[in-house]
Amino acid sequence: MKIETYYVISGVSKKDHSTVFYSIDSHSGGYPYWSTGLSQAEKWETMLTVPMSVENIMLDQVVDIAVSQIDIAITRRTPLDQYKKHRLQSELDSLEKQIEEKRKLLKSYE
Which structural domain, as residue segments, surrounds residue 107? Predict the structure, then answer.
């Protein structure tokens, strides 16, 4: 099992006291915001690469701010082609099941 480590800036929201993470909105040209999801968090590979400061406007939105170390255990890796094939087959199976159910319904009207 492989462990991946990265660092994020986290805080506690003044609004609802939930944990929030420093994120960058790539759609707005890099506007920073606090995200409730770890998946949207801006990630750094080492503690030394984490920025020393956060925009002042963002500090008004949190009670506490810290650098958090995130360790992820990678327990299984599936090659992308294999994943795509499996997902497409699952979707096809689902569609075939729906078609069969609709055929049965249609026959009930005969």
Answer: 78-110
Whether the CB-CB separation of 43 and 6 falls below 8 Å is answered with: yes
Are 83 and 106 part of one and the same domain?
Answer: yes
**Average pLDDT rounded to a whole number, residues 33-52:** 89
The 3-state secondary structure of 27-45, one letter per residue: HHCCEEEEECCHHHCCCEC
State the pTM of this model: 0.61
Residue 66 pLDDT greater than 70, yes or no: yes
**Pair (31, 66) in one structural domain:** yes
Mark out the alpha helices in the chain (DSSP H runs).
56-59, 80-107
**Residue in this structure with the two tokens 């929201």, named with its chain if needed:** 13
Residues 41 and 6 in one domain: yes
3-state secondary structure of 76: coil
Q: Are residues 85 and 55 in the same domain?
A: no
CA distance 96 to 79: 26
